[in-house]
Amino acid sequence: QVQVTESGGGSVQAGGSLRLNCVVSGDTISRTMGWFRQAPGKEREAVAAINAPGQTSYADSVKGRFAVSRDNGLNTSSLQMDSLKFEDSAMYYCATTHVDYYPPSLDTSKYNSWGQGTQVTVTV
From 35's CA, which of 18, 65, 100, 124 has a CA 20 to 30 Å away? Predict the structure, then answer.
């Protein structure tokens, strides 16, 4: 059984940084790994994704501010978030799929294992 666990959320002032981490256990074939977020009253949206070779995709809203990485040996992914804005506040989710997408998919429907999320709050 695949378990996806996020950590690293918290509260930060606008302009600050946070680093989210994701650990996938019970599955040695996590190909594409994605980060998504959902704010209250809004639909879940893609943030970033990374496939096994390390290719990345980003939502336009976070390009140049966020960076996704992964460690295939440890089956982990990290999301470095810099220059945070109030509108980045949301619950952030990590997700995985057994398919290696080229480019890495930002489509939520492509992912089949999800974590419980970690809250990110950006204050002004």
Answer: 124
Tokens, residue 55: 């290719």
> Beta strands 56-58 and 45-50: pairing type?
antiparallel
pLDDT per position as a tens digit, 40-57: 999 999 999 999 999 999
Q: What is the residue type of 114?
A: W
Closest by CA position to 66, among listed 43, 40, 92, 44: 92
Among 40, 47, 60, which Cα is nearest to 95's?
47
Is beta strand 45-50 parallel, antiparallel or unpaired with respect to 33-38? Answer: antiparallel
* 3-37 residue pLDDT tens: 999 999 999 999 999 999 999 998 667 789 999 99
Residues 73-94 have a mean pLDDT of: 97
The helix/strand/coil state of 29 is coil
